[in-house]
Amino acid sequence: IKHAKNFNTSLNPKPIDAIALNVDISPTIMDMATVISPPNINGKSLMPLLSGKTNELRDGFFYEFFGTPLP
Q1: pTM confidence score
Q2: What is the DSSP letter of 1?
Q3: Contact between residue 18 and residue 55 where contact means Cβ atoms under 8 Å apart
Q4: Short-list 5, 6, 16, 4, CA closest to 51
Q5: DSSP characters over 12-66
Q6: Which of 4, 43, 52, 67 could make an SS bond with 23 (beta carbons 3.0 to 4.6 A apart)?
Q7: Which pLDDT tens digit goes with each residue over 22-52?
Q8: End-to-end CA distance of the chain
């Protein structure tokens, strides 16, 4: 995730080897905007990764697809 240079000077862009999912985008944006995420929201804020407070949010994930397979 790349943020605006004037957003938060405490965040230093760097590669992070951690699992991040698309469902993490909404909680991350809410966290950046200092909005409390609803308790039932899917995903986790990536801010702990971006700020260096942790090295991983999860150690795996489960993916399941319900739909019609492509021909």
Answers
A1: 0.69
A2: -
A3: yes
A4: 16
A5: ------S---GGGHHHHHHHHTTPPPPTT-SS--SHHHHTTS-S-S-S-------
A6: 43
A7: 999 999 999 988 899 899 998 999 989 888 8
A8: 35
